[in-house]
Amino acid sequence: MAVAAVTTEPLDRQLPMPFHPPLPTPPTKKRLPAGRPRAWYVSHNRRLKAMRLAIALLDSGVYQPSSAGNHRIRTTAERLGMHSPSDTTCRMVRALIRYGR
């Protein structure tokens, strides 16, 4: 009985693969309660967006609000497939990063 020769190198000699953390998947959407004023829905959605962006920035290694400029936040939003956040939302993201420490 012939045995096939294995020609692979040992695991410790192989080059390591670069690690890229997976992008967070968007949460499943639920209907919002009816009967609230429009301002409530706007602020609620803004808070959700700011939270998602803050989590994505923290996962990518941005731990200081000073290193989370508007351009970096908007680039992260584009990478996640979100619409570009407003200046107000960018301020909320920095506040979440600041107070989450």
Structure explained in plain terms:
The termini are far apart. The chain contains 3 helices and no strands. The chain is mainly α and 101 residues long. Helices cover 46% and strands 0% of the residues. Helix 1 crosses helix 2 (70-80) and helix 1 crosses helix 3 (87-99).
Features of this protein?
3 helices, 101 residues, single chain, mainly alpha
Main sheet summary: none
Distance between termini?
64 Å
Quaternary form: single chain
List the total number of helices: 3
Catalogue the unreliable spans.
none
The portion of residues forming beta strands comes to under 5%
Which percent range fits the helix content? 40-55%
The strand count comes to 0
Assign the structural class, choosing from mainly alpha, mainly beta, alpha/beta, alpha+beta, or little secondary structure.
Answer: mainly alpha
> What is the residue-averaged pLDDT?
84
Estimated radius of gyration: 21 Å
Give the helices and strands as they follow along the chain.
HHH
Sum up the overall morphology in one term.
Answer: extended
Topology:
Blueprint: H1 38-59, H2 70-80, H3 87-99
What's a concise summary of this model?
This protein has 101 residues and is mainly alpha-helical. Helix content is 46%, strand content 0%.
